[in-house]
Amino acid sequence: MTTAIEIINDAYDLLEIKNSEVDLTSSEINLGIRKLNRMMTAWAQQSIHLGFTKINNSTDKITSPDWAEEAMVYHLALRLAPSFGIQVTPALIAVANDSYKWLIENTITLNETSFPDNLPVGAGNNINTSSNFYTNNDEDVIETNDESSLSNDEAIILTTESTNGN
């Protein structure tokens, strides 16, 4: 399992701040930890849930999956660069964008939406039907007090009749 210092070192390597001969200072490591925690919190708010737990020191294990590390490293580098007055290269930005796009595609799922039969499709939305309303093949069923059931259409008729005094 990867540690926080490995992610932080890799991000600094991309910015050419650190090399194999020079260790990071404690302030550089602490900056990396703070920015990593903030970045992962922001991603979680954007519905990119990777199981990340807050890092308290550089030896903490990264709890996110291994396949998410590239996006973490490249985006951490983007967040660290302004602190050192470094202008990032177009190549670094491209890899960061690609890895983030891949991360989104693999973590966010969109559920299919069904629309009620009485909802108009709206002007300009041609769904190749003769009706101006969405069609719903799954008829909604409403349970009644006497354990029988009604469709939505039957329930609407009964509700209209009862409010009209019938």
Characterization of this structure:
By secondary structure, this protein is mainly alpha-helical. The chain folds into 2 domains: 104 residues, Hypothetical protein yqbg; 54 residues, no CATH class. It is built from 5 helices and 2 strands. A two-stranded antiparallel sheet has the order 1-2. β1 and β2 form a beta hairpin. The chain is elongated. The C terminus is likely disordered.
Overall number of structural domains: 2
Compute the number of strand runs: 2
The proportion of strand residues reads under 5%
CATH class group of the largest domain: Mainly Alpha
Which structural traits does this protein have?
2 strands; 166 residues; mainly alpha; Hypothetical protein yqbg; single chain; elongated; 2 domains; two-stranded antiparallel ribbon
List the helices and strands and how they pair.
Blueprint (H helix, E strand, L loop, with lengths): L3 H11 L11 H20 L23 H12 L9 H18 L33 E3 L5 E3 H12 L3
Antiparallel strand pairs: 1-2
Helix pairs in contact: 1-2, 1-3, 2-3, 3-4
Quick summary of this structure?
The chain has 166 residues and is mainly α.
